[in-house]
């Protein structure tokens, strides 16, 4: 019996060593992935702190640090106006998407009416249409309504989103219908039920949708590039592209790197403040 027990216990060290090897390989791969992801970010920040003659030097840490590039982007361009434009558009888009998508998701989840499934499938089908195919219709609508080169022209394609409706509908399905029936018996109307009962129960989903919408709106480039004409109306991504198209000298590369460094600061702050909600919301979205 003792010999058999010894022979059965012998493979255990191999299992532990193989597990340690797999964990080590995983750490190596993750470290390599982090390095590939973080290196361009560090290079961008380092370049924004360099003098023009040092822009092509292969140094992550600048030999001589300067903040003149940060002063230049505000003096040589309406960068403060671009920041304001991006902030206004991102905030308004986030508010409208959160409101309309939540209401639409509530209706599709908790109401029964003819054609509900067809409408939901039709909304989901719009996710399969590339944005590039919608730009021409959007531009014709904006031009006919006189919305070119305005905030509204940038805003109207993103006031409500199919992804947001799908996300909120899935979460609204988890809200107990008994609570809503009890509220109706007590005399509450549908708007009060939505605000007082449904929304508090799906707050993580709304926060996730709001954060993802803000980030997407902040980074939007193609549509603002087409609908905006005057530099004062540009958003930050379009303004950074304006630096690239204005000249081809090294100073413009410095301005591009500096402007991009400033542009990512709000997104980093949002992630640092709401990282728990982002991770929890994405995990809950995956489970749905």
UniProtKB/TrEMBL annotation:
It is a multi-pass membrane protein. PROSITE patterns: ABC_TM1. Keywords: Cell membrane, Membrane, Transmembrane, Transmembrane helix, Transport. Pfam families: BPD_transp_1. The keyword Cytoplasm does not apply. Residues 83-274 form the ABC transmembrane type-1 domain. InterPro entries: MetI-like, MetI-like_sf. Its main location: membrane. CDD domains: TM_PBP2. One of its GO terms (cellular component) is plasma membrane. It is found in: Cell membrane. The chain crosses the membrane at residues 21-46, 87-109, 118-139, 151-172, 193-215, 253-274. GO terms for biological process: transmembrane transport. Belongs to the binding-protein-dependent transport system permease family. This is Sugar ABC transporter permease. It comes from Paenibacillus beijingensis. The lineage of its organism: Bacteria, Bacillati, Bacillota, Bacilli, Bacillales.
């Amino acid at each position: 019996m003792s010999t058999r027990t010894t022979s059965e216990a012998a493979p255990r060290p191999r299992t532990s060593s193989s597990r340690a090897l797999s964990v080590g390989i995983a750490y190596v791969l993750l470290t390599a992935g982090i390095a590939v992801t973080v290196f361009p970010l560090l290079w961008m920040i380092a370049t924004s702190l360099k003098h023009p003659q040092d822009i092509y030097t292969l140094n992550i840490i600048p030999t001589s640090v300067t903040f003149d590039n940060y002063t230049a982007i505000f003096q040589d361009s309406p960068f403060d106006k671009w920041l304001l434009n991006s902030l206004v558009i991102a905030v308004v888009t986030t508010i409208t998407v959160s409101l309309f998508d939540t209401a639409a998701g509530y209706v599709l989840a908790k109401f029964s009416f003819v054609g509900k499934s067809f409408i939901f499938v039709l909304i989901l089908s719009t996710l399969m249409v590339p944005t590039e195919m919608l730009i021409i219709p959007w531009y014709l609508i904006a031009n006919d309504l006189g919305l070119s080169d305005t905030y509204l022209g940038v805003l109207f394609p993103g006031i409500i989103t199919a992804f947001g409706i799908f996300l909120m509908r899935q979460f609204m399905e988890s809200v107990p219908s008994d609570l809503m029936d009890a509220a109706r018996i007590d005399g509450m109307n549908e708007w009060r039920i939505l605000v007082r009962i449904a929304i508090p129960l799906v707050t993580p989903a709304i926060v996730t949708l709001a954060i993802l919408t803000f980030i997407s709106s902040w980074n939007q480039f193609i549509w603002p590039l087409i609908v905006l004409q005057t530099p004062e109306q540009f958003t930050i991504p379009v303004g950074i592209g304006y630096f690239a198209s204005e000249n081809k000298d090294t100073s413009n590369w410095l301005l591009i790197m500096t402007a991009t460094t400033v542009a990512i600061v709000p997104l980093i702050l949002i992630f640092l403040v709401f990282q728990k909600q982002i991770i929890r919301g994405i995990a809950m979205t995956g489970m749905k």
